[in-house]
Amino acid sequence: MDIRLKSLTKSLWVFHAALSPCNNCDIEILDLLTPRYDVERFGITLIGSVRHADVLMATGVPNAKTLERFKELYSHAPQPCLVAAIGTCAGGGNMFRDSYNSPCALDEIVPVDVYIPGCPPKPEAMIAGIVKLIEKVKGQS
Ligand code: SF4
Asked: What integer pLDDT is reported at residue 1 of this predicted model?
């Protein structure tokens, strides 16, 4: 099994990338990291540098301002790096789809590994999405 892929099945380190969210998805991510849900018991922790990231948790719709920055962030992450689209905005554009400031969808910029729908999605949905992500990686390795 590829060592990098194997590492992606345990203790995922997540980096939060806000593309242009309304902040509700971001607050739910914070909720996910609180002792109430305690995802650190699975080794999941939020990190401050994309260079150490296993998963990019993207919220919001890519817009003219954030599109290039997100591509750059992704290019700095160790590869393969997983991408989770958190919320309906990141997953499909929500009500901003095809608007003047939304040139393309997230999955047209980078490969998206899991879509977690909701506006915003609950922490439980994010945990279920992370489990799917790990199962997907295990299937690839
Ligand atoms: S999916 Fe909903 S809650 Fe999340 S950033 Fe978009 S509008 Fe806000």
From this structure: 55
